[in-house]
Specification:
The protein is of the alpha/beta class. It has one domain: Rossmann fold (3-Layer(aba) Sandwich), CATH 3.40.50. Helix content is 33%, strand content 16%. An eight-stranded mixed sheet has the order 1-2-4-3-5-6-7-8, with helices on both faces. A hairpin with a 4-residue loop joins β1 and β2. α3 crosses α4 and α4 packs parallel to α7. The protein is globular.
Length: 282
């Protein structure tokens, strides 16, 4: 399985029907999926012709915004929300094409996700400042949001996050055939999300605001993380180096290693995420 498909929140998800082209019109989203007690309630908010699902709990400022990985939904954070909500307000939401949010034309990318989130927060009257917490590809989206709206950001927590340079770094160690196979499989994701365009968008973005940054990185390698024809030792090292480099995005950033976790840190060691959020909140 290509790395970029592994860098996906793997909680059980229910996906809205994606439109196959930009000209397609959105259709009604499926019914809200069953949720655990911590995320049982939420609302859908119109952001201009379609709606996104958001769940918020707790009181206080700044508000913590939780951004799931590619194809992941709000239930990614079911083990994080309860403890954070005792400290401040925390919100988890679902991007377009992830039920119960409405479908939207594909392909989607990080710039579109940032625009949707900005519209959602405004329409739901959730004022900043925000602490952004991004998992996997959600970490890349969070980086782009912070670069786009730096004045709204109080802090960043990146959890097993993609690095803006990941695609370039990985491709330098792959053959053209391997690159083509990776792209073909990755672009088949049911969210209709284009990570390759998103990497370029993050690279082209301005600097991140000078706010607290904590990077939480996997301490274990998941079985089958790399395709059989990729050199696992090389890509393990490249991945570790990229994680360490994320810390340099903001002066004073620091890294935490989730020693008991592979990629699924929100599931396996949610307490590390809670601790990082509390530290960023100060």
């Amino acid at each position: 399985m290509p790395r970029r498909l592994l860098l996906v929140a793997t909680a059980t998800i229910v996906l809205a029907a994606c439109s196959a082209s930009a000209a397609a019109s959105p259709t009604a989203a499926p019914a809200t999926p069953a949720a655990t007690a911590s995320l049982a309630n939420g609302i859908t908010v119109d952001i201009g012709g379609r709606s996104l699902f958001i769940y918020c709990v707790g009181t206080g400022s700044p508000t913590v915004i939780l951004e799931a990985g590619m194809t992941g939904d709000h239930r990614t954070w079911e083990n994080v929300v309860p403890d954070v909500s005792s400290k401040t307000r925390v919100c988890a939401y679902d991007r377009a094409n992830i039920a119960p949010s409405d479908p939207a034309p594909t392909p989607r990318d990080a710039t579109m996700a940032v625009a949707d989130l900005h519209a959602l927060l405004a329409a739901a009257h959730i004022d900043g400042p925000y602490v952004l917490v991004g998992f996997s590809m959600g970490g890349l989206i969070s980086q782009l949001y912070a670069a786009t709206y730096p004045g709204d950001i109080k802090g960043l927590v990146l959890v097993a996050s993609n690095h803006p340079d990941e695609n370039d770094v990985f491709d330098a160690h792959l053959t053209p055939a391997q690159i083509a196979a990776d792209k073909a499989e990755t672009m088949g994701n049911p969210e209709g999300f284009d990570p390759f365009a998103s990497f370029k968008e993050a690279q082209a973005a301005g600097p991140l605001p000078n706010v607290p940054l904590i990077v939480i990185s996997s301490g274990k390698t998941d079985p089958g993380v790399w395709p059989p024809d990729w050199d696992a030792a090389v890509f393990d090292k490249l991945s570790a180096d990229l994680q360490a480099d994320l810390v340099k995005l903001i002066p004073g950033g620091r890294q935490v290693i989730a020693t008991k976790s592979g990629h699924e840190i929100p599931r396996d060691q949610p307490e590390l995420i809670v601790d990082a959020i509390v530290a960023v909140l100060g």
